[in-house]
Model the fold of this input.
Amino acid sequence: MTETLLAIGIIVALFVGYNIGGATTGVSFGPAVGANVVSMLGAAILMSFFFFLGGWIIGPEVVSTLGDDLVPREYLTLEAGIGILFFIGLALFLGNLFGVPASTSMTAVGAIAGLGMATGSLDWATMGEIVSWWIVAPIVAFWVSGVIGRYFYPRLNAWVAISRRETQLWRVDRTGAIPRIRAADGSDRREITGSLIVVGIGCYMAFSSGASNVANAVAPLVGAGALDYPTEVSLAGLSTTIGNMEWGVIIAGVAVTIGAFTIARRTLATMGNDITNLPLTAAVVVMTVSATIVTLLSAIGIPVQLVVVSTMSIIGLGWGRATRTTTVSEVVRGRKETRVSVGALTAEEEGEPAPPIGEEEPADIPKASDLFDPSTTARVILIQNFVPLLATVGAFLTFRFVPIFGF
Done:
């Protein structure tokens, strides 16, 4: 019976990881794919490798928080773990079905919190700490991005000049005995450098995603000790033991890889082309700020909602860019009004220098609707808030009223 339950638990964990791969690949590599800097296949390969790397190095800290700290171990049985994973996977699957990368961290925490509330065992101190960081992290992302937008973004945009292409930047040259990857004809050095930056930041995002999200797929099983089968492995003369935690990271990595190669195509299309015309220079700034915040918090065991942090980073970057129409002294003296809009990020083309602070007219700042597609953005926000709520309520009702779990 235990072996059957474990098999079911691993299958459900694979299903959750599969959907995480679909959701987070779009967030990490959507801008690069939308700009034809990397193909969907290339995005899947890079996502798989760097997600596993982040999960292996930093991920265990978040796994411990979700698997040990939110709910006592005696309540996190194998049966309960399967139930939690089911609701996480179902909620994320609905998000991927609509092509929306939902917040896996909020969904996982919500499902575990549903168990804790149903059994009266939720550690409210840990829950409060997590929620506090959920509030603080977007605020930090907003202000850091705002400073960059006002003082550094125009210079970065003029220097890097990353632009979207109609055709693929990289091609495979098969004329020789060994295929080689070469830049497309007509590509200049700055465009190639910019493309490498976009891909590099995507890899960094994938790493931070692994650090934060590997726990969402396997924390219930690891917390229940269901994967505790120590195995000695030797590689390049080095020996290590793969135990409960390591098996969890491996299972999550395999599942995310499958999701990245399959269902991620929907979210790559949404994040790369449909929701926004965000300039690639701005996307690089947003991704760097967001990935750094997520990685740092994951290192102390806090699961963070990457989607919300990224959104606030976009808003902060646009706000900072828009405030360049006025100087600090003009604002203090009330001599000039500022038209604040995230559409300010499209005020100049890639590589075009911006006017000095205070020498730009507010009327020259584009509206937010010039940057975001309103209908797609509304759909994304609605589903991203509905998915975690569905997991929380579903888990609470199940663990509270279904006697099969023995609570």
In short: The longest helix spans residues 189-223.
